[in-house]
Design goal:
binds adenosine-5'-triphosphate; 6 helices; alpha/beta; binds nicotinate mononucleotide
Length: 201
Amino acid sequence: MSSPASVPNGRKVGLLFGSFNPIHTGHLILAHFMATHTDLEEVWLVVSPQSPFKVGRELLPEQGRLRMVEAAIAGNDRLRALDVEFGMPKPSYTIDTLDELRRRYPSYRFVLLMGEDNLPGLPRWKEADRILAENEVYVYPRPGVASTDVQMHPGIQVVTAPLLDISATFIRDCVRAGKSIRYLVPEPVEQQIQAAGYWRT
Ligand SMILES: Nc1ncnc2c1ncn2[C@@H]1O[C@H](COP(=O)(O)OP(=O)(O)OP(=O)(O)O)[C@@H](O)[C@H]1O
Ligand SMILES: O=C(O)c1ccc[n+]([C@@H]2O[C@H](COP(=O)([O-])O)[C@@H](O)[C@H]2O)c1
């Protein structure tokens, strides 16, 4: 895990949990926007080995996904990649990781970040009530998502930001179809996908 030592005590850090299968320009714009247009000092991208809602779905090995995240954010000192969930039980429950990060970094204030598509399912997350009681949640809007009552929770803020109709599903489909993914993912990520033959073999 990269060192988070640059965040002074008590400052706010955003946590973007995801499968990142693969990381794409939508994730990067979301993360950088949150790190620069809100009160957050940094955003950490937490690579989840196994989302509880994606059990049984095709997922690249976690190390490969982490390498792509690291390559994508290289040189951006407001973004960090975290592999904290790699050593934790699977599936990856966010409340357990939040507890672990609080143990490791007791003076930091963490804010949960997510795309709007995750909001309707949030009440079904493990200990959803505790997640919402203990954490602020900043939500990035996502196209095609119907509004939900969860959004009315006082701890949840939907930011005003450009909509990005990009998904990892679309990128995997493009790769399988032999179509270009240039600019949908950063160049080093495109190179890793090509070199490893992800979704082609
Ligand atoms: N284009 C986007 N706009 C807003 N939020 C996004 C976007 N893409 C991903 N996110 C958010 O980033 C987080 C991690 O997403 P994830 O890694 O599952 O990517 P995904 O593109 O949704 O993947 P898949 O298509 O495989 O379901 C989630 O909170 C998701 O809502
Ligand atoms: O904690 C939970 O119950 C929970 C339920 C669904 C999703 N999550 C986390 O949310 C992140 C995005 O999930 P997904 O399914 O949109 O890829 C990922 O890191 C998951 O581990 C967490």
